[in-house]
Amino acid sequence: MKKIEAIIQPAKLDEIKETLNQINIKGLTITQVMGCGATKGWTEYYRGSEVFLNVLPKVMLMIVVPDERVDEIVSAIIKTCRTDHVGDGKIFISNVERAIRIRSREEGDSVL
Ligand SMILES: Nc1ncnc2c1ncn2[C@@H]1O[C@H](COP(=O)(O)OP(=O)(O)OP(=O)(O)O)[C@@H](O)[C@H]1O
Ligand SMILES: [Mg+2]
User: What angle is formed at CA 36 by the lines to CA 95 and CA 50, rounded to 5 degrees?
Assistant: First the structure.
């Protein structure tokens, strides 16, 4: 199992939900977050001395899926969320050791 964390522009939320529904993704978590990336994220000086991070509102999707679905989902996210402008977002993929459905104590791909 893999965890896909995709940080996207909030304006893409409705469209990505539709896309994920079309490819039969059932479980996901959506969080409103603040962040900055490698470009235009940092404002180094403000009135001569202050240093701060110029963070912007983003949406984070968290989806845990069987290994074999990762490429398909990453492609779908890129296709929907890419505008070719800075700030389109980023996708992180990591391993998940276990997934457990609380109701039934079932484990593994079938709970996803
Ligand atoms: N290295 C990182 N670690 C954690 N979150 C990140 C990282 N890079 C980007 N993010 C998150 O992704 C959001 C979008 O990043 P963004 O698309 O601006 O990345 P970028 O590297 O600046 O690329 P671009 O040049 O396309 O803007 C950020 O606001 C932040 O929430
Ligand atoms: Mg950026």
Answer: 135
| Cα 35 to chain centroid, rounded | 12
CA of 61 to the centre of ligand 2 (A): 18
What percent helix, strand, coil does the chain show, rounded to 5?
A: 30, 40, 35
Low-confidence winner among 5-9, 30-34, 42-46, 47-51 (lowest mean pLDDT): 42-46
Distance from Cα 94 to the centre of ligand 2, integer Å: 22
Q: How far, in Å, is the centroid of ligand 1 from the Cα of 90?
A: 6
**What token pair was written down for 61?**
């999707």
Architecture of the CATH domain 2-111: 2-Layer Sandwich (3.30)
CB of 91 within 6 A of ligand 1: the answer is: no
The CB of 5 under 6 Å from ligand 1? The reply is no
pTM of the model: 0.90
